[in-house]
Design brief:
The structure is a homodimer. In chain A, 39% of the residues lie in helices and 26% in strands. Chain A has nine helices and eleven strands. Chain A is elongated and about 70 Å long.
């Protein structure tokens, strides 16, 4: 049975403007791979309502699970929760359970639960809250979409909460072999190998070091013995 | 007049599996911003023909310019050129101009121009070659799509070739101000500021340092005097 599929939607002008280098996608990709869930597509869109709505609808329909990051803070450009409500035609307002979390937190820290902070308690009807052990304001799950913060420490904590609840697949295993030949010399034998081991994914990642060409060949799959067989054959080809 | 728009399509299993952290998107985002071109969307897909075709068609139709990275090498998983031909319904085969480039290069280096390397001369009809000063195998431009290599040094060289040929807009300017208050205390005044300066983009990027909360407020736009006025008003609000 093929592994479950996932997609990620990164929301925020700061990635697209080049101000911030994405860290959440790289983190999530690694975590999903370990759990045997195939990250099949990523989209990055800006803080535009119609773009966010269209992207989450397309990804939610196509993949088993969707993760979003960004746009759930207290400021005027944090529009993700309202976009999710629109995408799934749910009513949205400040919800009592989320308000209670924030009220307790701000009381203990001596800050005011003002209108801006209350925006973080806007949760679509029927969504389940995702715990935020870092800064309290929750994420939420709506249909097959997990809506999470963009701040990396919070994003990672939310992923840690959500991942154990998902049905994983067989973990993706991999082995790699460095071949100190030009990729053009490797490609022919590699295609033969890929045809023989069609159940595996075989990638070639070229490099150039001190003027010499080479490539790291990475063989991925869920059957360790098959990967062993393929990498052994590959090593023989270039012995 | 609004600035020209661009999208990027990153092609490759290695980003989605978490093996490689993307560098090309971050580089391109910064370059486009400097040139006044708005990077409006990024998609990352794996080495699947139908996904690549669908994504490039959608992005090409919607944005002024599209950049792709990855999948134009000599190995069996390098399918980008064929996907571009399919997406724009063009014939594709080894093209004489590209073959000549490769033949000269491999003759000078003493390597054989074998079938695998010849795959890198497969260029759709009507596409214009993009120079590759690093490792010769060219990229190409088809319709409004610039098809480039995934290896960062080659990608960057190709961007340097293509960018001067594009119509830029007013460069995006920015100023930022660090405010050592919780984002929830900043959000209200910030929304007022954003409403007054609706022609600017005002973003808030929260941080936590030594237990204290703060946020960097970044104000972006194409009119330096307006940005000055907004950042001055912001500073007064939190003086």
């Amino acid at each position: 049975m093929p592994n479950p599929t996932a997609a990620m939607l990164v929301i925020g002008d700061e990635i697209l403007s080049g101000r911030t280098r994405d860290a959440n996608m790289y983190f999530l990709a690694g975590e999903l791979t370990k759990q045997g869930i195939t990250l099949a597509e990523v989209r990055i869109v800006g803080d535009e309502s119609k773009d966010i709505v269209a992207a989450v609808q397309a990804l939610s329909e196509r993949y088993d699970t969707v993760f979003t990051s960004g746009g759930i803070g207290p400021t005027h450009d944090d529009i993700t929760a309202d976009c999710m409500a629109a995408a799934f035609e749910r009513h949205i307002d400040v919800r009592d359970d989320a308000r209670a979390l924030l009220a307790a937190h701000y009381q203990s820290t001596g800050s005011e639960l003002n209108d801006a902070r209350l925006r973080m308690a806007r949760i679509p009807d029927g969504a389940a809250l995702i715990d935020n052990p870092v800064s309290v304001a929750p994420g939420f799950t709506i249909e097959n979409v997990h809506v999470m913060a963009g701040v990396p420490s919070v994003f990672q904590a939310m992923v840690a909460t959500v991942l154990p609840t998902l049905k994983g697949g067989a973990p993706l295993l991999s082995q790699s072999l460095r071949i100190d030949r030009g990729e053009g010399d490797i490609a022919g034998p590699l295609a033969t190998l890929a045809a023989e081991f069609a159940d595996l994914s075989i990638g070639s990642y070229p490099f150039q070091k001190n003027g010499a060409y080479g490539a790291n060949i990475v063989i991925r799959g869920t059957d360790g013995a098959r990967i062993d067989a393929a990498i052994t054959k590959l090593a023989e080809m270039f012995a």
